[in-house]
Design brief:
The complex is a heterodimer of chains A (445) and B (479). Chain A is built from 14 helices and 15 strands. Chain A has helices at residues 8-18, 47-59, 80-86, 89-92, 104-121, 133-148, 161-172, 190-195, 219-227, 247-250, 312-315, 328-364, 390-398, 429-444; strands at 66-67, 125-126, 152-156, 177-181, 201-208, 231-236, 254-258, 274-278, 291-295, 301-305, 371-372, 381-385, 402-403, 406-407, 418-422. In chain A, the strands form 4 sheets. Chain A has a 7-stranded mixed β-sheet, with helices on both faces. In chain A, strand 9 and strand 10 (301-305) form a beta hairpin. The chains are: A alpha/beta (445), B alpha/beta (479). Chain A: Keywords: Oxidoreductase.
C-alpha cells in the first residue's frame, strides 16, 4: 500500500531541482560500511488482510471474561460521546500545542481538564497529565524531594505494589531512599507511618482507597507529617472521589492517581493517564506540561503552555523532570467523561460502585468459611479471607469465564488465602450472584 | 470561547448512570465522605458535543493542515491502524498476572512479542521492551539499564553521560533523572558533535554517550562508528535516540553501527497519532549483554509456541504498570505489518526526498547554516530576515494565516533563529510547492513590509498570546 503520493514524473522533477540523479544518491552521506546488515521483514499487505490478523489477536484477548479484578485498572462505563469526540482528527492528529493560536482546541480542553482534576482532588493546581498512575506516584515522590530538599520517602505498603516498584526504581538512581511501612491487616498502620517520619523524610505516600480496597482518613497523618516538615502524598482512584473525602480535604500536599477509569478503556495496559495536582505554592515543582490562561494582543482570553522554564527543552539536565509530553488525548477523554456525567451523575456513579460492592461483600461472605479482612469502610474493592489458598481458586473460576479477584500472595507474602475482589457499576446482580455460587462450588470441592 | 463550566446550568443532566439492580447499601460513613460535591459542569449531551466539536475546530492537525514540525515527525496517521488499535479495548491487563490467566490473553501477548521482534530487526538490536510510555520515558529506561549494567560489573566510578549540544533536551534531563551528571559537547562546523572535544571528554568515568543520527540538524554524522568505538574502548556504552529513525528505515540500523541501547518513538516513526501531546510510546532495544537488565516483566515465547509473562529478576524493575501503552503499540504493529519491508524502505526514501526538495527550493531566500544533503529534515536560520527585524516566530505566525502549521522554531538551540522543517513521506509535491510559495512570500514580505509579519496571525480565533502574563498570573484552572 502506498502512502507516498509522488509519481515517478514528480520524483524526477524533484530530483532535478535538488540536483541528484536518484533517490539513492541522497543517502550518499551514509558510508557504505554503515549500511543495514539486515532488514528481514515480511512484505506488506492489504487493509483487509491486516484486519484479519488483528481481529484474530483481539479475539484471543480475554475480553469475554467477566472481570472482578482491578489492580489499579477498572472496567467502567464509557459514554458514547467520549469515543466520538476524542476521535475527531483535529484532536487526535495534532501535536503538543507549541503554537497556541492554532491549538486553542487542545489548550482550552487541557485547561478544562486541569480544572476538573483540581475540583476532584480538592487541590489548586494540576498539570496537563502524566503517563500513568504508577509513574505519577514516582513523579510526586521526586517532587517532594525537590520541595523539601530531603532524600527519603515513607511508602505505605498498602499502595498498589506495581506502583511501589516503580517508585523504588525511580528513586534508586538518585540515591534517595524509599522506606516501606507494612500495613496493619488491610489498612495503613497510621501509628507506624507517623513514627517513621524523621528529619530526612520528604513525604509520606499513602493510597486511598488502598490496594486492599480500604478507605481511611489521613487527616491526622497530614498534620503529623507537616509538623515534621514532610509532605503528604495521597494516591487515589478518581471514581471514588465522587463519594470519598478528597486529598485536599484530608490535608494532602500532592494528589496523584491513574485516570484510566475516567473514560479510558482497559486496552491491555494503556494508554491511560496519570493525574497530579498540588497546592498553588508548589506549582513550579510540578513536573510536565501546564496550560495557563492569558490574553491575546487584543485582550481576548486564550490559553498557552506556561511555566516552560521548568522544562527540559530550556533547562535541559536541570529541568524539574524529563517529561516532555503528556497523555493529552487520554486526559481529553477523562475531561469529556467527567463533563458527560456532570456533578450529579459523577456522585451517582460513585454511590452505585459502593452499593454494588457492598452487595457483593454480603453475598460472598455468605459463602461458608469466607470473611472480609478489611477492618473498616471499603469503596468498590474489598479483600476476602478464603478457607484455602486463593490462587488455585482464582484459576478454577477463570476456567468458568470469571476473574474472581487478585490473589494477594504474590505481592504480600504470607497472605495466601487473601483475595481482593473488585465490583464496578458494570457488574450486574446476576454476575455477582454467579460469582458467589462459583466461589461456593470451588471451595466445597 | 466559553469554558464548559461557563455553559453549566444547575440541575441540567448529562449522561444517565445505570439503574441499580442491587439493594441500597447502608450509607457511606460521613466521617470519610467528601464535604463538597465535585463541581463538574452540568450540561446536556448536545451542549457537550457542540462544545468539544467546536473546540476541535480551533486546532490545526495533520488531517486538516500540512504540519512540517521538525524532529517531531508529524506524519499522516493511517486510518486502518486506528481501527486495529481499538480492537483491544476490552482486554484487562491484570489477566495474565493471575494464575492460569496467560492462556486467555495469547492474542495481545503475541502482539507485544511480535512488535518487540519487529523493532529488534528494524533497529539491529537483540531484544526490545515495550514498557516505556513515551520517548523520554524510554530514554530514562535505557539509561537505567546502562546504570544497572555498570553496577553489575562493579564499575562504580562512572558518573557522566555525554550529549551533543544539539541533542533533544530530554536526553540530558533523562540522564539526570537516572542520577548522572551531564557533559555537553559543542557542534563542529561540519554540523555534528565535535570529534576532538568528544575524545577529550571521554574517559573511564563516562557511563554513556547519547546521540541521534541523523541529528537534529537533519545531518548524518559520518564519524558515528568512530564515536561508538571510542566510547566502547573507554568502557562506556552508546545510546541512540530514535527520534529521527524515520529517515533511515532499511538503510541504517543503529545496532549495526555500534549502538548498545536505543529507544524508538512509535508516534514518530510508526505512525501512531500524538493526540495533541500524547499518548506516545517509547520501546527500548538493547544488545545482548544488556538483556538481563531490561525491566520486568518480559513476554517470552515458550517451547510450545505459546506466550508467557515472566519475571526478570536481575532487571531494573517495573517502569510502568503493565506492557506499555498497548493500544498505541497495536497501531505501530499494524503499521509495520501493513507496510512491510518495501513499504518501510519507501517511507525513508520519500521522507528524505521531500526534505531535500524543500531545502533546495528555499535555500535561495533563507540562510542554510549547514549546506549539505539532508536526511528527513532541514534546518534554516531566519538570520537574513532578522536584518529587517523579522524573527523566526513572525514567519511561523504568518504561515498559520496561510493555513500551514509552522515548522519547529528556535530548535536546535545551536542555530540562531532556527526554522526546522520536516515534511515527511506522505506529503505530495503539490502540497510542498504551496508551502514553499508561502515561505518565499514571507521572505519577500519580510523585506517589504516587516510590520505585516509582526501582526500575524490574524485569521485565528486568538492573536498572539501574552506568555509572560500567563507565567506571572499562573491561572491554571478555573476558579
Amino acid at each position: 500500500m502506498g502512502y507516498c503520493p509522488n509519481t515517478p514524473d514528480e520524483i524526477r522533477e524533484m530530483l532535478a531541482v535538488i540536483g541528484a540523479g536518484s533517490i539513492e544518491e541522497l543517502f550518499a552521506p551514509i558510508p557504505a560500511e554503515l549500511r543495514a546488515k539486515s532488514f528481514d521483514l515480511p512484505p506488506g499487505m492489504s487493509e483487509f488482510e491486516l484486519m484479519r490478523i488483528m481481529r484474530e489477536k483481539a479475539a484471543a484477548g480475554g475480553a469475554e471474561i467477566v472481570p472482578f479484578i482491578g489492580g489499579g485498572i477498572y472496567d467502567h462505563i464509557i459514554p458514547a460521546a467520549v469515543d466520538h469526540l476524542s476521535s475527531r482528527a483535529e484532536f487526535y492528529t495534532a501535536y503538543t500545542p507549541y503554537q497556541p493560536e492554532c491549538s486553542q482546541g487542545t489548550l482550552q480542553a487541557l485547561f478544562e481538564y486541569q480544572s476538573v482534576i483540581c475540583r476532584l482532588t480538592g487541590m489548586e493546581a494540576s498539570n496537563a497529565s502524566l503517563y500513568d498512575g504508577g509513574t505519577a506516584v514516582a513523579e510526586a515522590a521526586l517532587m517532594s524531594l525537590r520541595i523539601t530538599e530531603r532524600n527519603r520517602v515513607v511508602l505505605d505498603a498498602s499502595i498498589n505494589p506495581l506502583h511501589r516498584e516503580i517508585v523504588t526504581g525511580y528513586l534508586h538512581g538518585l540515591s534517595a531512599e524509599a522506606v516501606e511501612v507494612a500495613p496493619d491487616g488491610c489498612g495503613s498502620d497510621l501509628k507506624r507511618l507517623i513514627d517513621s517520619i524523621d528529619e530526612e523524610t520528604a513525604a509520606v505516600i499513602v493510597q486511598n482507597p488502598n490496594f486492599f480496597g480500604s478507605v481511611q482518613d489521613f487527616s491526622e497523618l497530614a498534620v503529623k507529617a507537616h509538623e515534621k516538615g514532610a509532605l503528604l502524598i495521597i494516591s487515589g482512584y478518581p471514581i471514588a472521589l465522587g463519594l470519598v473525602a478528597s486529598p485536599g480535604e484530608m490535608g494532602a500536599d500532592i494528589a496523584v492517581g491513574d485516570g484510566q477509569s475516567l473514560g479510558n478503556p482497559l486496552s491491555f495496559g494503556g494508554p491511560y493517564f496519570g493525574f497530579i495536582a498540588t497546592r498553588k505554592r508548589f506549582i513550579r515543582n510540578l513536573p510536565g506540561r501546564i496550560v495557563g490562561e492569558t490574553i491575546d494582543n487584543q485582550g481576548r482570553r486564550g490559553y498557552v503552555l506556561t511555566l516552560q522554564a521548568r522544562e527540559q527543552h530550556i533547562k535541559r539536565h536541570k529541568a524539574t523532570s524529563n517529561i516532555c509530553s503528556n497523555q493529552s488525548l487520554c486526559a481529553l477523554r477523562g475531561l469529556i467523561f467527567c463533563a458527560s456525567l456532570g456533578r450529579k451523575g459523577f456522585e451517582e456513579l460513585a454511590v452505585l460502585n459502593y452499593d454494588k460492592a457492598q452487595y457483593a461483600k454480603s453475598r460472598l461472605t455468605g459463602v461458608k468459611g469466607v470473611s472480609v479482612m478489611n477492618a473498616g469502610t471499603t469503596f468498590n474493592e474489598f479483600t476476602l479471607s478464603l478457607p484455602k489458598d486463593a490462587a488455585p481458586v482464582v484459576e478454577k473460576l477463570l476456567a468458568c469465564g470469571v476473574a474472581a479477584g487478585v490473589p494477594l500472595v504474590q505481592y504480600y507474602p504470607g497472605m495466601d488465602n487473601a483475595l481482593t475482589v473488585t465490583v464496578t457499576e458494570k457488574r450486574s446482580k446476576a454476575e455477582i450472584d454467579r460469582l458467589a455460587a462459583l466461589l461456593e462450588e470451588a471451595l466445597c470441592s | 470561547m466559553q469554558l464548559i463550566f461557563e455553559k453549566s446550568v444547575p440541575g441540567r443532566n448529562g449522561v444517565r448512570v445505570p439503574l441499580s439492580d442491587v439493594p441500597k447499601a447502608s450509607p457511606f460513613p460521613d466521617a470519610l465522605r467528601r464535604k463538597e460535591p465535585v463541581l463538574l459542569p452540568e450540561v446536556s449531551e448536545l451542549d457537550l458535543v457542540r462544545h468539544y466539536t467546536n473546540l476541535s475546530r480551533r486546532n490545526f492537525s495533520v488531517d486538516t493542515n500540512f504540519y512540517p514540525l521538525g524532529s517531531c515527525t508529524m506524519k499522516y496517521n493511517t486510518k486502518v491502524t486506528e481501527n486495529a488499535g481499538g480492537l483491544f479495548a476490552g482486554c484487562h491487563p491484570f489477566l495474565p498476572l493471575l494464575p492460569g490467566g496467560e492462556r486467555l490473553v495469547q492474542g495481545p501477548l503475541s502482539l507485544v512479542h511480535g512488535l518487540e521482534q519487529q523493532l529488534a530487526e528494524i533497529t539491529g538490536m537483540d531484544e526490545v521492551t515495550t514498557q516505556p510510555l513515551a520517548g523520554a520515558h524510554g530514554e530514562m529506561t535505557g539509561i537505567m539499564v546502562i546504570a544497572a549494567y555498570h553496577k553489575a560489573r562493579g564499575d562504580k566510578k562512572r558518573k557522566y553521560v555525554i550529549v551533543p549540544d544539539s541533542s533533544h533536551g530530554t536526553n540530558p534531563a533523562s540522564a539526570a533523572m537516572a542520577g548522572y551528571e551531564i557533559v555537553t559537547i559543542p557542534t563542529a562546523p561540519y554540523g555534528d558533535m565535535d570529534l576532538e572535544q568528544f575524545k577529550n571528554a571521554m574517559n573511564d568515568e563516562v557511563a554513556a554517550v547519547m546521540m541521534t543520527c541523523p541529528n537534529t540538524l537533519g545531518l548524518f554524522n559520518p564519524h558515528i562508528a568512530e564515536i561508538c568505538a571510542i566510547a566502547h574502548q573507554a568502557g562506556a556504552l552508546t545510546y541512540y535516540d530514535g527520534a529521527n529513525l524515520n529517515a533511515i528505515l532499511g538503510k541504517v540500523r543503529p545496532g549495526d553501527v555500534g549502538f548498545d541501547v536505543i529507544h524508538v518513538n512509535l508516534h514518530k516513526t510508526f505512525s501512531t497519532p500524538h493526540g495533541g501531546g500524547g499518548p506516545g510510546s517509547g520501546p527500548v532495544g538493547v544488545k545482548k549483554g544488556l538483556i538481563p537488565y531490561l525491566p520486568t516483566p518480559r513476554v517470552q515465547r515458550k517451547g510450545d509456541g505459546s506466550f508467557a509473562v515472566e519475571a526478570h529478576p536481575e532487571g531494573i524493575g517495573r517502569v510502568s504498570d503493565f506492557f506499555g501503552n498497548f493500544a498505541i503499540m497495536a497501531r505501530a504493529y499494524a503499521y509495520i505489518t501493513l507496510l512491510g519491508r518495501e513499504g518501510l524502505i519507501e517511507v525513508s526514501e520519500h521522507a528524505v526526498l521531500n526534505a531535500n526538495y524543500i531545502m533546495a527550493r528555499l535555500k535561495g531566500e533563507y540562510e542554510l547554516p549547514f549546506d549539505q544533503t539532508c536526511m528527513h529534515e532541514c534546518v534554516f536560520s531566519a538570520s537574513r530576515q532578522l536584518q529587517d527585524g523579522v524573527h523566526a516566530i513572525d514567519i511561523a505566525k504568518y504561515l498559520i494565516d496561510r493555513g500551514f502549521h509552522p515548522p519547529t522554531v528556535y530548535f536546535p538551540l545551536n542555530v540562531k533563529e532556527a526554522i526546522m522543517i520536516e515534511p515527511t513521506e506522505t506529503e505530495s509535491k503539490q502540497t510542498m510547492d504551496l508551502f514553499i510559495d508561502v515561505m518565499l512570500e514571507a521572505a519577500r514580505i519580510a523585506r517589504e513590509d516587516p510590520e505585516a509579519l509582526h501582526r500575524a496571525p490574524v485569521t485565528t480565533p486568538v492573536g498572539r498570546l501574552d506568555e509572560t502574563r500567563a507565567a506571572r498570573a499562573q491561572q491554571v484552572c478555573c476558579e
